[in-house]
Amino acid sequence: MIVISTIRDVAKLAGVSVSTVSRFLNKSGYVNAETERLIKDAIEKLNYSPNEVARGLAGKKTNTIALILPDISNLFFSDLARAVEDVAATYGYTVIFGNSDDQGTKERRYIETLKKKYIDGIIFASNTLSREDSEMLAKLGIPFVCLDRGPSEKNGSVVRSKNKEGAVMAVRHLLDVGCRKIAHIYGPQDLITGKERLNGYVQSVQVFEWYTPTLLEPGDFRIAGGMAATERLLERHPDIDGIFAGNDLMAVGALKALQRRGIAVGCQVAVCGFDGIQTTEITTPELTTIAQPIYEMGAHISRLLIKKIEGVLEEDRIYELDVKLIARDSTLRRKVPNEQG
Amino acid sequence: MIVISTIRDVAKLAGVSVSTVSRFLNKSGYVNAETERLIKDAIEKLNYSPNEVARGLAGKKTNTIALILPDISNLFFSDLARAVEDVAATYGYTVIFGNSDDQGTKERRYIETLKKKYIDGIIFASNTLSREDSEMLAKLGIPFVCLDRGPSEKNGSVVRSKNKEGAVMAVRHLLDVGCRKIAHIYGPQDLITGKERLNGYVQSVQVFEWYTPTLLEPGDFRIAGGMAATERLLERHPDIDGIFAGNDLMAVGALKALQRRGIAVGCQVAVCGFDGIQTTEITTPELTTIAQPIYEMGAHISRLLIKKIEGVLEEDRIYELDVKLIARDSTLRRKVPNEQG
DNA sequence: CTGAAAGCGCTTACAG
DNA sequence: CTGAAAGCGCTTACAG
Fold this sequence. Notes:
The first copy, chain A, is α/β, with parallel strands linked by helices. Chain A contains twelve helices and twelve strands. Chain A has three domains: 7-56, 434 Repressor (Amino-terminal Domain), CATH 1.10.260; 64-161 and 294-322, Response regulator (Rossmann fold); 163-292 and 326-331, Rossmann fold. In chain A, helix 1 crosses helix 3 (33-46), helix 5 (75-90) packs across helix 12 (294-309) and helix 8 crosses helix 9. The first copy, chain A, starts with 6 loop residues before the first helix and ends in a 15-residue tail after the last strand. Strand 2 of chain A pairs antiparallel with strand 2 (94-99) of chain B.
C-alpha cells in the first residue's frame, strides 16, 4: 500500500503551519514568497494533493455536479452528457449522472442522495422536476439549471432551443420543395418541445386551404410512435406529400412506415425531423432535420450552472438557442422516383 | 434556508450518545431494542439522513463508483452506461463518468481526481489503462474491473463477449445464405475486439479456395472507416458477395458505400456487423449483426466491481459472455434484386 | 504575513 | 449494551 501524504505532512516538511499551507492551496490570504517556495517544494517532494472529501466536509464544496436525464442511452441525451462532462472537466468539476426515466420518484431519490453528498449543483434534463422539488432545492441552497422547461421556472435558468421557430422553418422548407399537403406527428404535449413544435406547425399551415386538424397525429417521440402515427395518417390522407415529425426518432418511424408501404421517401412523400441526432445521417435516404445545437446546449447549460455555483451569475433567465435546417435526401423531390445512380 | 439535522441532534433527542446512533445506523454492534425505538423516532422526527461526505471522510467509503469510457456519446457506451447506473443505483452506489477519448493522459487525470475523492472503485471501458496505472491502482487499494481487455490483467476482473466465436458465427451465416466470397473489414488491432474478430474470420475462411488476404481491409470502428474500406475492397474484388464488418458502425459505412454504388445490399452483397447497437434497426435494409449482450455486460461488470468493493469477490477472472446472431434484411438474398412490395 | 484552535459530521476502537 | 475520546484531512475565522 502506498502512503498518501496529508496537509500536515506538507506543513511539517515545509516548517510552517497547516493553516498557511491551506491558505497557499486555496490562494486565500497572503503567503510570503519565501514560505511559498518552501511549501511548493514540500508538496512536490511528497507528491501531495489535497483530499477532496475532507475539503468537501470542511468547505461544503465538492467540485461535483450532477446530471439528471431521462435515459443516458437515448442518443440526444448522450450527446448532451458528453458536452456537459467536457465543460465540467474543463472547470475542474466531476459529473455524476442519473437516469430518471421521467419518473418523479426516481428523480426525487437522486435529489435526496445528491444532497447528502454535498453536490455543488444539478442539471435537470428530465422533465419531472416538480414545483415543490425546485422550491426545496432553492431552500437547500443547491443551485440548478434546466433543459427545455416551461417559462414557470423561478429558481433556475433554462436552456432550450427555438422550437416554434424551428417548426416554422420545417414547414417552410417542405413548402419550398413543393409539398402541398403536409401532416404533422406531434410529441407529448406536456413537454415544451412537443407543444411549441406543434404550435409552429399549426401557425404555418392554417392559412392554407388544404389544412385540416386531421393532418395532426400524436406520437410518443419514439420510433414506434412515429410508425404508428404515419400508418394512421396515410389511412386518412393517402395524398399527403410531406410529413413534419416532432422529432428525429419519430421521423425515422415515418420513414420506415412509408418504405414498408413502398412509398418513395423524398419524391413521393418528403419527411422532415427535428433534433439533429446522429441517426439522421444513417437512414436511407438521410433525413432532413431541424438541428438543435445539442452539444452547445449542453455546454451552455453547464457553464450556467458553474457560474451559479461560483456566484457569478447575475440572474436566472431563459436562453433560447438557434436551430438550423439541414436539408438532406428525405426532402429531395426528384422527378424520377426510382432512378439509380 | 432549511436546517439540516446531524447525528448529534438525533443523539440528543433520543437521549443517547452519538456512538450509539452511529452503531444503529451502520448495524455495527448491538443496540438495545428500546434504545433502537428511541433512535428511530428521533430520526423520523428530525427527518435525519446521514451526511455522506462526513461518512466518507471518517469511513473511507463514499458509495460512489466511476465509469471511464472512451466517449459517452458513442451508442455502445451509452447503452453500457445505462446498465452500469441501473445496477449501481440498485446497490446504493452513485456513478461518476468520464470520457477518455482513448487517451492515456485523460484517463490518468481521472484516476488522479477519483483517488482524491475516495471513489470506491472504477470501471474501465476504455482501452488505455496501462500496466503501471493498473499496478498503481492496486497499490492504492482501489478496486477496478475492465471491459474487453486482453488476458494480461492481473489486478482486475474482465468482462467481454465471445468475439472470436461471434466472428465464426458471422462467417457461417454468410456462407449459409449463399455467399461465396466474403471480405472482412477489421477494427484496430490493439483492441481485443478488433483482433479476435479478425482471428475468427481468418480461421473460418482460410480453408476456402477463394480466400486471399486481400479480402482483408482495415477500418477504424467508425462509419467513415467502413465506407472507405468498402470502396477499396470493391476496387480490388468487384465480385465479393459478402462483407463481415468488425463492428456495426463500419457495417453501416459498408451499407452506405454499397448503396452509393447502386449495389443492392442483401441480394448482391450481404453485410453483417457486430455489436448489436440500436442503429442496426434503423438502416434500410436493417442490418444483420452479431449482438453482444451490451446491457448484460454493463450489469455484470458493475456487480463484479461492487462485489470487489464489498470484499466478497473470491478471485479476479475473465468472463466471456455469449453473443447472438440477429439475422435481418442485409443478409437476405432474395432472387429478384429490385423488387418492390 | 502566520499559527493555534475550533469545527465540518461522521466512525472506530476502547473502556466500562 | 453504551459512552467518551480520538481521529478522518481539511477550512475558517481569530489573534497576533
